[in-house]
Design goal:
The chain has about 325 residues and is of the alpha/beta class. The chain has two domains: about 110 residues, NAD(P)-binding Rossmann-like Domain (Rossmann fold); about 180 residues, Rossmann fold. Helices cover about 35% and strands about 15% of the residues. Strands 8-7-6-9-10-11-12 form a seven-stranded parallel beta sheet, sandwiched between helices. Strand 6, helix 6 and strand 7 form a beta-alpha-beta unit. The longest helix is centred in the last third of the chain and has 19 residues. The chain is globular. The protein binds D-malate. D-malate binds next to loops. Pathway: Amino-acid biosynthesis; L-serine biosynthesis; L-serine from 3-phospho-D-glycerate: step 1/3. It is an enzyme of class 1 (oxidoreductase).
Length: about 325
Amino acid sequence: PPTVPLRVLICDEMNPGDLSHPGFEIDYEGNLPREETLRRLPGYDALITRSRTRVDRELLAAAGERLRVIGRGGVGVDNIDLEACSRRGILVLNAPESNNVSAAELAVMHLMAAARGLTRSDRLTRAGEWDRKFLGVELKDRTLGIVGLGRIGSIVADRAQGLRLRVVAFDPYVPENKFERLGVERAATLDELLTAVDFLTVHTPLTDETRGMIGARELALLKPGAIVVNAARGGIVEEGALVEALTSGHLFGAGVDVFVEEPPAPDHPFLHAPNLGITAHLGANTREAQERVGAEIVERVLAALHGDVSRGA
Ligand code: MLT
């Protein structure tokens, strides 16, 4: 280990495990206010975040010259300005696998919750209304469409098959043999997928290509009575279009774990949309996932600070 301790700041909530690593000083500050992060950063060699902290030019400028590594405790790096990091020679690492099961399980939960009107029934019952008129839909023998058959999408496919759903996916970046191995049918285009399915879930990163990918036109291609789940990133399914499709009754229901702006404004239209289940970006929030994420990202960042950059994001 180096003789002068290398310093790491963890500014978002996670379970970083044992922080005593010889040669390193790791400060864990679960939910550090942004101004504090900016103020303290110049004293650190590495910063570890989750999706809450925006790693943008302002933050990098505040950090100064010492910062060499950014660790993202999770999968998506859309909160990090990768170009600005690379211009400053800062290595960006993530923990691409540790929370995949948790994220997939949350997506399946949202599908089931929407199919059975969970949030509606919960709200009405608490308000004193014993409504047994609501009719849900069974999942068995229906078709689930998955956009993005990566690590998380593949787990969703497996769990959905366990529920006896037929699974079709659209992912131009995944080879044919992966579809075969997973027993998932391949849709050649997004439109082909949308017209074929009863339920839709998205599992892509947020990029210029996927932002707004499911808008009003795409939602209209879904069968009437479809269910849409977005547990990936806010904005992949356009928020206004989703509210409109729920309000018009074209969609049976939806589940979202992510918003374009997090936390959402108190008057966000999602909060009043019918049969829309909401969670607060909790896909990765299980004890197991956060233990794995914390251990993996700390290990990767420390290894990178030692000069082992061979496993970059
Ligand atoms: C991810 O991209 O892995 C999640 O958004 C992690 C998180 O909850 O920060």
